[in-house]
Amino acid sequence: MDVDPILISTVVGAVLSGLGSGALEKVQSKLRRPSTVEEAPAPSTSTVEERADELADLLKRSTTLLAELSAEMEARTATVRELQAEAKHAESIASIHKEAQAAVEKMLDARLAARLEESGRKSFKQGMWLNIVSGAFFFIAGVVVTLLLGG
pTM here? Predict the structure, then answer.
């Protein structure tokens, strides 16, 4: 997830405009006090200077906040990039493991097939010899019984 520079500049612009409009509103509200002839003293240069100083302080603070926000956004962007790189690495490792797993399964299947084939041949040979021996036994037994009974 890349952080779009346009998004950063939009956020920064919104913060600055919010801070600037807040400062301007404050200055304007002070300048627009309801004036009555009795209560309204004539504006002096010290109040304008104080307001200008206050505005300057607010602008300095907004600049500081902007720098802090920008640094935090850069840090988060770096963290996101690191996490993306780690995720890519994990995906490549996972695909390697899948390939290795498939290769092992293929090898085991081949070994099992070979063993089954060997076992089948061995079983066939054992069965054949058992049939030959049992057939010979019963043949000889039959011959012996026939000779004993017929003889």
Answer: 0.38
- Under 8 Å between Cβ of 40 and 102: no
Element (H, E) at 94: helix 45-150
Q: Is the CB of residue 48 less than 8 Å from the CB of residue 83?
A: no
Please answer whether residues 57 and 7 qualify as being in contact, where contact means their C-beta atoms are separated by less than 8 angstroms. no
Burial pattern 21-47, b for ≥16 Cβ within 10 A else e, equals eebeeebeeeeeeeeeeeeeeeeeeee
- Is residue 8 within 8 Å of 73, Cβ to Cβ? yes
Q: Are 77 and 3 in contact (CB under 8 A)?
A: yes
> Residue 19, Cβ neighbours under 10 Å: how many?
17
- Cα-trace Rg, the chain: 48
Q: Where are the beta strands (DSSP E) in 4-103?
A: none
| Per-residue pLDDT tens digits for 54-110 | 888 888 898 899 899 999 999 999 999 999 999 998 888 888 888 888 888 899 899
